[in-house]
Amino acid sequence: MSPRKSEFGPARDLSPEQAAAAAMVAEAKARGLALTGPDGLLKLFTKNVLETALNEEMAEHLGHEKNQAEPDRESTNVRNGTRPKTVVSDAAGEVDINVPRDRESTFEPRIVKKRQRRLTEVDEIVLSLYAKGMTTGDISAHFAEIYGTSVSKETISRITDKVIAEMQDWASRPLDAVYVAVFIDAIHVKVRDGQVANRPVYAAIGVTVDGCKDVFGLWMGTGGEGAKFWMSVLIDLKNRGVRDVFFLVCDGLKGLPEVVKNVWPQTIVQTCIVHLIRNTFRLASRRDWDAVKRDIKPIYTAPDPDAAMAALDELEEKWGAKYRAMIRLWRNAWNEFVPFLDYDIEIRRMICSTNAIESLNARYRRAIRARGHFPTEQAAMKCLYLVTRSLDPTGAGRARWMMRWKPVINAFAITFGDRCPGAETY
User: Fold this and answer.
1) How far apart are CA 295 and CA 220, in angstroms?
2) Residue 45 in this model has a pLDDT that exceeds 90
3) Kindly report the CA angle at 39 between 33 and 44, in degrees rounded to 5?
């Protein structure tokens, strides 16, 4: 049945795909059928497309169409009826199809493989929803409501389990030899191991000499965040090929600078300025926050380390008697605070904080909050990996990141010319 021109415009303006869609809509109207839903035309259309494709695959496998075998051919393999099968489509729900069989059982269909019950799109939807923070129960209810089909929580778990091997390959993949900056941090997840307990998950992001951002991996620890476990993480990165890092930016964890020096002796450890300022306000009374804010700004905006030390002395002279712990905080962190003051403003702006990894942690926490706690360590790691895999699907974020880092990469090529690959050609 052809669509009427008044509804769909001149037929000569339609592509073949548009013409097929228009014809399907017109046929649904003529037969009084809904386009979608349990008994809709879309379900019938999906069934016909799949069965037609399977029959074409069988014809290709046997070398002849149905009932058209050459009498003198060598093979005796022929069609042997069909077997019923139910598949789940993201658009049409459950679809009953008839899969052709051959007498020798050598036919391997491609469009709907043996033992495949869900079309690929369903798996991708499940993984996407899981990565966005929905639980297996939420996803099951979502499919029942939107697609009119039942997908059990166990089935959804099996779908997400498919990424475990992929996750293991990702966590052990080789890395570049040199990174201009590495940002590290840890978040905590609740895992039920006999009883629910907080477990740290260590994450690291690297920036290549071309300005690309790369999530190195995720490591599950025990107890609280500690420098000793960070040692094993950094050694793992070194074993995967990382030979040199210009800057490592962290939140000021005690003992971490010594750990970094043992792995990469030339690496400069930079304490996150945002964490330092945040901890400063925690040690000061709220009524003094505005005044303290004005007095600490000359420290982290100083043109050089000497000017920063002079500003710190002034801070101590004004607030030392009232907030001794605040002054001690700055002096204890001084050696890891001042390094960025020796470099160009472009480098300062990008390495003075762990904001690069904080945005990733925010995505992780969003998915964690939706679940409360995880039954196993593997379930937690699977969730966080799927969040990582779903980052920036369009590539727009990567493009913006590289634009921001271009001036920094140029500054690194000059400042670290003896360690930056290819810098001799600049």
Assistant:
1) 40
2) no
3) 85
Q: Count of alpha carbons within 13 Å of 161, Cβ hemisphere only? A: 7
Largest CA distance in the chain: 104
Edge-to-edge order in the sheet of strand 213-220: 213-220, 195-208, 178-193, 244-250, 268-271
* Cα–Cα distance for residue pair 230/13, rounded to 1 Å: 63
Residue pair 50/57 in contact (Cβ under 8 Å)? The answer is no
pLDDT tens digits along 365-411 = 988 887 778 888 888 898 898 888 888 877 788 888 888 888 888 88
Judge residue 194's burial from the number of C-beta atoms within 10 Å of its C-beta, 0-12 exposed, 13-18 middle, 19 or more buried: exposed
What is the C-alpha separation between 393 and 361, in angstroms, rounded?
17
Residue 146: pLDDT band by 50, 70, 90 thresholds? low
| CA pair distance 356, 341, nearest whole angstrom | 19
* R_g of the chain computed on alpha carbons: 30
Question: Taking each helix axis from N to C terminus, what angle separates 256-263 and 227-239, rounded to the nearest 10 degrees?
Answer: 20
CB-CB contact of 230 with 204 (8 Å): no
d(CA 217, CA 2): 55
pLDDT 10s digits, 274-316 = 999 999 999 999 999 999 999 999 999 999 999 999 999 999 9
- When comparing pLDDT for 56 and 326, which is higher? 326
CA atoms within 13 A on the CB side of 193: 13
pTM of the model: 0.68
- Residue 425 pLDDT > 80: no
- Both tokens assigned to 382: 């699977």
Nearest to 234 by CA among 212, 211, 214, 256: 256
Q: What is the DSSP code (8-state) at residue 267?
A: P
Residue 7, pLDDT above cutoff 60: no
Q: Where are the beta strands (DSSP E) in 194-300?
A: 195-208, 213-220, 244-250, 268-271
How many other β-carbons are positioned within 10 Å of the β-carbon of residue 301? 13
Q: Would the pLDDT of 162 be above 80? A: no
Tokens representing 215 are 């999530």
HSE-up of residue 339 (Cα within 13 Å, Cβ side) = 21
Say if strands 268-271 and 244-250 run parallel, antiparallel, or are unpaired. Answer: parallel
Report how far residue 310's alpha carbon sits from residue 341's, in angstroms, rounded to the nearest whole number. Answer: 14
The mean pLDDT value of the chain amounts to 82
Task: Enter the DSSP assignment of 373.
Answer: S
